[in-house]
Write a structure and sequence with these properties.
alpha+beta; nine-stranded mixed β-sheet; six-stranded mixed β-sheet; 21 helices; 18 strands
Length: about 775
C-alpha cells in the first residue's frame, strides 16, 4: 500500500508534464473502454430483440415450422414476405372459442375481423404506399407498442380474420415461445460476427490500451530507476509504476463507460443503416461492466509491472541509457504455426480437397487467425531490427542511416508505433472475406423473379386472377406424376403445364415448341432426369373444383425442346415434360405436389407491385419468392452494419494508437534530437529521419499484413463452404488502404520535430 501511495504522490507532485501525461493516459483508456463497451453491448442488443420476438410468437402457426396441435381457442397464420430488402411479417388471427386469448406483448387486445394493428414504421409506409393495404386487409385500429417490436423500424402487423379464412392456420392458444422463429442473427452467423469483431476490434484494442499504459515510458523508467537506487525494493518499484497506470485505467474506464452511455443514447435514436435498437437494449450487463471496470485496470497493472521490470532489475543501465538487448526470435513462434494452418487450408482449396470436418475447422481457423495476428505484433521488432541493420549497412544517405541506426538500437519503438495500423489492415482483409461469404447467399441476382404457390391453396378462380396481376409476365403449373406410397420404386417425372406462348414469355430460349404437342424440355448443362425416357407412361391425378377426380396417363414423347430461362437455378429440370393444358379435361388440375409459378421482372418496384397484387387476390396465400429470403437478407444487412461499426472502431483505435505512440516517441526522443541539432543537423534532415523511422517498419508490417491477411481470408473462405475461395477484386482497395496508411503516417510524423532547440533537455538528461 505504501508503494501505491508513493506512486500517486509522485504523480501529483512531479510537475505539469506528468499530469498532462496522466490525463492523456486517462483519455486514451477512456476511448479504448468506450470501443470495448460497444463490442460487448452488441450481443446484449441482439438477445433483447430476440427475447421480444420469442414473447410474441404464436404457439402454433404455419410459418416455417409444422404444427400438430388441434387444441386452442383461435387460429393463427404467419406470413413473411419481402418488402424491398426488409421482411414484412403478418400474423393473421381469428377467435374460435368463447375463452378470450391473452393478446401478445404490445397489443391491448387481439384484432377482430377487419381490424389491423401495425407497427409505427408500417403505419408510415401505408400512408406513402396505398398498394400495401392489400397485404393488410381491414381498418387500422391501433399501433403496436415497443414491447411487441424487436426494433423501432420493424415491419410487423396483426390482422384480424374470420375462422373460415384461416383454414391453413394453426390452432392458437397463447402467444410466447422458447425461442424466436426468425432471430435477428442466426447463432452460426453470430459466431462469425463475434470472431470477426474480436479480430477487428479486440486485438488492436489490447495493443492500444497497452500503448496508453506505457506513455512516456523512458522518462518514467529513469524515475523508477532512481527510486530503486535510493533503496526501494524490486517489487515496490514495480508497484509504484503500476499505481499510476492503474489509476489512469480506472478513471479512463469510468470516463469510457460514460462516453458509451452518451453514444448509445444518440445512435440508438438515430439508428444505423438497416439496424436500429431501443436505448434500453444497449445497457451493459454486469459482466461487461466488470470487464471494463476490472479487466482494463488489471491489464494496466500487468503492463505497468512488466514495464518497470527493467528499471527494477538493472537501474544503472536505465539511468545511463544502456543499449537495449536485441529482440529474441521467440517472437516468431506464434506466426509460424498460424501461417502453417493458413497455408494448409489455401493448398487444400487450390487442389480441390476442401475440408469437410467443419467442427474441426471451426476451432482451427480462429486459432490460426489469432496466432497470425499475435505473430504480426511480436515479429515487428525482429523484422524492424533486421531491416534497419541491412539498410544502415548499405545506405549512403545521412538521414536514412541515422533513422535505421536508431531503429536498430530501439526496435521496440516500431512495435508501439506501427502495430495498431498493421492489425487494422490485417483485420480489414478478414472482414472482406466474411462479407464475400455473406454475399453468396439469400440474394436474387437474376433479371427475373419467380413466385411459387401451392396449387391446393389457389382455387381455379383465384388462379385466373393471379395470372392477370399487374407485372406478371407469364405463368405455368408444375406438377409431379403420381407414385404409389407403398411402391418400393418411387419413380416419377416432372411436368410443366403451359402453352408455347406462356413458355416463351418465361424463357428467352425456347426452340422447337409446337402448340398442342407434348415434348421434353432439355436444359443445356443440367443433369438429365433418367426417369424421363421416351415411351414410358406416368399417371397424373387430377381434380376439379367440385371434388371430382380423374387419372390421365402421359407418355413421355420423343420430341424435345431446347430450353433455358433466366432464373438463378432454372425453373424446370432437364427432362421435364411440357404438357399442353388442352391435354387435360376442362376444369381439372393436378392435385399431387403441384405448384403455380408466376414470373415477373426482378426490379424492386415490380416485385413489390406483384406481391401486393397477389395479396389483393388472397392476402393469406403463402408465396415463396425464389432466390430471395427476406429474413436472411435482413440478417446480412445487420451483419454488414455491425462489421462496418467494427471497422470504424478499429480505424479509430488504430489511428489513436499511432498518434499516441508516435507523439510519445517524438517527445521521448527530444534529447537525442536536440543533440543532433546542436551538432549541426538541419530540421529537414531531422524530419527525414523521423519519417524514415516510422515509415519503413510500418511499410514492412503492412506488406506482411496484406499478404497474411489475404491468405487468412482465402483459408476462411475455403472453410466456409461457399463457392468463392480467391478474391482478387478487393486486393486493389486493400493495397490502396495500406498506401494511404503509410502516407498518413509519414505526414503525421513531420510536425513532431520542433523548431525550438532547448539545450536544457540535454542537461537534464
Amino acid at each position: 500500500m505504501k508503494e501505491l501511495l508513493l506512486g500517486l504522490r509522485l504523480l501529483l507532485g512531479s510537475g505539469r508534464g506528468s499530469r498532462v501525461r496522466f490525463m492523456l493516459m486517462v483519455v486514451g483508456s477512456g476511448v479504448g473502454v468506450c470501443c470495448l463497451a460497444v463490442v460487448l453491448a452488441i450481443p446484449g442488443i441482439l438477445a433483447a430483440q430476440d427475447a421480444r420476438k420469442a414473447a410474441r410468437e404464436p404457439d402454433c402457426s404455419n410459418g416455417r415450422g409444422s404444427c400438430l396441435s388441434t387444441a386452442g381457442a383461435g387460429l393463427a397464420l404467419t406470413r413473411l414476405d419481402p418488402y424491398g430488402s426488409e421482411p414484412l411479417t403478418r400474423i393473421f388471427v381469428a377467435q374460435t372459442g368463447a375463452a378470450p386469448i391473452t393478446p401478445p406483448p404490445g397489443l391491448p387486445e387481439l384484432p377482430g375481423p377487419g381490424e389491423v394493428f401495425v407497427s409505427p414504421r408500417l403505419h408510415e409506409l401505408l400512408n406513402r404506399d396505398p398498394g400495401l393495404s392489400q397485404l393488410l386487409p381491414g381498418n387500422e385500429v391501433g399501433l403496436i407498442s415497443a414491447q411487441g417490436l424487436a426494433q423501432p423500424d420493424e415491419l410487423y402487423a396483426y390482422v384480424g380474420a374470420r375462422p373460415e379464412e384461416l383454414k391453413g392456420g394453426g390452432h392458437l392458444s397463447e402467444f410466447g415461445w422458447k425461442y424466436a422463429r426468425f432471430p435477428t442473427v442466426e447463432p452460426s452467423t453470430l459466431d462469425i460476427l463475434r470472431f470477426t469483431l474480436a479480430g477487428v476490434v479486440l486485438l488492436p484494442l489490447a495493443v492500444f490500451l497497452s500503448v496508453c499504459a506505457r506513455l512516456s515510458a523512458a522518462s518514467r523508467m529513469r524515475r523508477l530507476a532512481a527510486l530503486r537506487l535510493l533503496g526501494l525494493s524490486t517489487k515496490g518499484t514495480q508497484r509504484v509504476n503500476a499505481a499510476e497506470t492503474v489509476a489512469a485505467a480506472l478513471l479512463g474506464a469510468v470516463f469510457g463507460l460514460g462516453a458509451y452511455w452518451v453514444v448509445n443514447q444518440l445512435v440508438a435514436r438515430m439508428g444505423l443503416p438497416g439496424f436500429k435498437w431501443y436505448p434500453a437494449d444497449g445497457a451493459l450487463p454486469g459482466t461487461a461492466l466488470l470487464v471494463c471496470l476490472v479487466g482494463c485496470p488489471a491489464l494496466a497493472w500487468f503492463v505497468g509491472r512488466a514495464g518497470a521490470k527493467k528499471a527494477a532489475a538493472n537501474p544503472l543501465a536505465v539511468r545511463r541509457s544502456a543499449v537495449e538487448k536485441p529482440p529474441r526470435l521467440w517472437g516468431l513462434l506464434p506466426l509460424v504455426p498460424g501461417l502453417g494452418i493458413v497455408i494448409g487450408y489455401c493448398v487444400a482449396g487450390a487442389t480441390g480437397n476442401v475440408p469437410t470436418d467443419t467442427s474441426f475447422s471451426a476451432i482451427l481457423m480462429p486459432l490460426a487467425v489469432v496466432l497470425v495476428g499475435a505473430g504480426l505484433v511480436l515479429s515487428l521488432p525482429i523484422l524492424s531490427r533486421a531491416l534497419a541493420r541491412t539498410v544502415a549497412r548499405v545506405t549512403s544517405s545521412l538521414s536514412l542511416g541515422l533513422a535505421m541506426r536508431r531503429n536498430e538500437v530501439e526496435p521496440g519503438g516500431a512495435l508501439r508505433v506501427a502495430t495498431g495500423l498493421v492489425l487494422l489492415v490485417y483485420a480489414a482483409s478478414l472482414t472482406q472475406g466474411v462479407l464475400i461469404e455473406l454475399n453468396q447467399v439469400s440474394k436474387n441476382t437474376s433479371p427475373v423473379q419467380l413466385y411459387t404457390m401451392a396449387l391446393d391453396d389457389v382455387p381455379e378462380n383465384k388462379e385466373r386472377a393471379l395470372t392477370k396481376v399487374t407485372g406478371v409476365r407469364s405463368h405455368a403449373i408444375q406438377a409431379q406424376s403420381w407414385t404409389e406410397p407403398s411402391s418400393e420404386v418411387l419413380t416419377s417425372i416432372s411436368a410443366v403445364i403451359a402453352t408455347c406462348g406462356q413458355l416463351r414469355r418465361m424463357a428467352p430460349l425456347v426452340e422447337n415448341c409446337v402448340d398442342g404437342r407434348p415434348a421434353r424440355l432439355m436444359v443445356q448443362g443440367h443433369t438429365y432426369d433418367e426417369a424421363s425416357k421416351p415411351g414410358h407412361r406416368f399417371p397424373f391425378h387430377l381434380r376439379n373444383s367440385e371434388g371430382e377426380r380423374r387419372v390421365v396417363n402421359v407418355e413421355v414423347p420423343r420430341q424435345t425442346i431446347k430450353y433455358h430461362d433466366d432464373t438463378a437455378a432454372q425453373m424446370v429440370s432437364s427432362g421435364a415434360v411440357l404438357i399442353p393444358p388442352s391435354l387435360f379435361p376442362a376444369g381439372f388440375r393436378p392435385e399431387d405436389r403441384a405448384t403455380l409459378k408466376l414470373l415477373s421482372s426482378a426490379a424492386p418496384g415490380t416485385v413489390r407491385s406483384v406481391l401486393e397484387g397477389i395479396a389483393g387476390v388472397d392476402p393469406t396465400i403463402e408465396v415463396e419468392t425464389d432466390g430471395v429470403d427476406a429474413a436472411a437478407l435482413q440478417q446480412i444487412t445487420v451483419i454488414k452494419t455491425l462489421l462496418a461499426v467494427g471497422m470504424i472502431l478499429g480505424l479509430i483505435i488504430g489511428v489513436a494508437a499511432y498518434l499516441v505512440a508516435a507523439t510519445d516517441r517524438a517527445v521521448e526522443r527530444r534529447p537525442q534530437v536536440t543533440a543532433l541539432a546542436l551538432l549541426g543537423a538541419r530540421p529537414r534532415t531531422l524530419r527525414a529521419v523521423q519519417v524514415a523511422q516510422v515509415v519503413l517498419p510500418l511499410a514492412v508490417g503492412l506488406v506482411l499484413a496484406v499478404v497474411t491477411g489475404k491468405m487468412a481470408e482465402s483459408s476462411y473462405l475455403v472453410t466456409g463452404g461457399g463457392a468463392v475461395f480467391w478474391d482478387g477484386a478487393g486486393l486493389p482497395l486493400l493495397l490502396a488502404s495500406a498506401l494511404g496508411v503509410v502516407v498518413v503516417a509519414a505526414l503525421g510524423a513531420l510536425p513532431l520535430i520542433g523548431r525550438r532547440i532547448d539545450p536544457e533537455l540535454i542537461r537534464r538528461d
